[in-house]
Amino acid sequence: MTAREWLRKYTSIFQQAGIDQADDEAVVLLCHVLKLGKAQIFAQPERTLTGDELTLLDGLVARRLRHEPSAYITGNREFYGLDLFVDSRVLIPRPETEVLVEAAIEFGRSWIACNQRRMLVADIGTGCGAIAIALAVRIPEAQVYAVDISPGAVEVAAINMHRHGLDDRIKLIPGNLLEQINRNMDLIVANLPYIPNEELAGLQPEVRLYEPVQALDGGDSGAAVIEAMLRQVPGKIAPGGALFLEIGEGQGELLIPIVRDALPGSDIELVKDLAGIDRCLKLVLTK
């Protein structure tokens, strides 16, 4: 069987199984087994697959047909141009989180230009370390503290930080939200659970069956964990510093009064994603 024939066959099988973006999913698995990039795969459509390669692919296809996410199958996810290791101990980074990262980088660069000193950054609920690593790479003057309550997530984040040569720039801290942060930060970023628990059962099986519920469940309102962190923010963010929160659809109006109560006088802005949905809450603590 050639690469072209395999892709055609399993794209159709994935489509029949109700798997989104079936053609891309088939390509991901083939690239993983052949250890080739997507462009290389399409440049060699008549390449004949060996028996060993087909056997490996059969095993991966069986897992994908059970709706295991391809990122867990391959152990890989690209985020903000970064290659990251992921497994079932962490949430798979989403493209929409890049909105949060982009906004935080813009603020960070402006802050450094004004203050001319090292910036202290905290990434709360770091998961695989995606946000912390992206900020450390794009803001070289930042010292990043990455916090997660899950021991498994801390282990995965450590792998990724070492992979990107950031062991000296990112300090991993096991802990709950801001409890272990004992100094004022210039920038706090957080992608915390924000799905209302009544919606968990309706999520795609890839999410519902495989991703860690602790990283998804935001309580009755979806904002319970975010609210808990907001209550901890006073005294943890420096004047002129900022807080960036990823939020779920419609949660901005719910959270703004809570933010104003916790940090009165702050400048608050909602940042939209490419779909026009409020995806990030930005707060700047006025001096």
Please explain how this structure is put together.
The chain is of the alpha/beta class. It folds into 2 domains: 3-66, Orthogonal Bundle (Helicase, Ruva Protein, domain 3), CATH 1.10.8; 97-284, Vaccinia Virus protein VP39 (Rossmann fold, 3-Layer(aba) Sandwich). Helix content is 41%, strand content 18%. It has 11 helices and 9 strands. Strands 5-4-3-6-7-9-8 form a 7-stranded mixed sheet, sandwiched between helices. Helix 1 (3-16) packs across helix 2 (22-34), helix 2 crosses helix 4 and helix 6 runs parallel beside helix 7 (130-138). The chain is elongated and about 65 Å long. The mean pLDDT is 94.
CATH superfamily label of the largest domain: Vaccinia Virus protein VP39
CATH topology of the largest domain: Rossmann fold
> How are the strands of the biggest sheet laid out side by side?
5-4-3-6-7-9-8
Shape verdict: elongated
List low-pLDDT spans: none
The total strand number stands at: 9
- The computed structural class is alpha/beta
The helix content, as a percent range, equals 40-55%
Which series of helices and strands comes N to C?
HHHHHEEHEHEHEEHHEHEE
Name of the CATH first level of the largest domain: Alpha Beta
N-C termini distance: 66 Å
- Biggest sheet overview: 7 strands, mixed
- Kindly give the count of domains: 2
Helix tally equals: 11
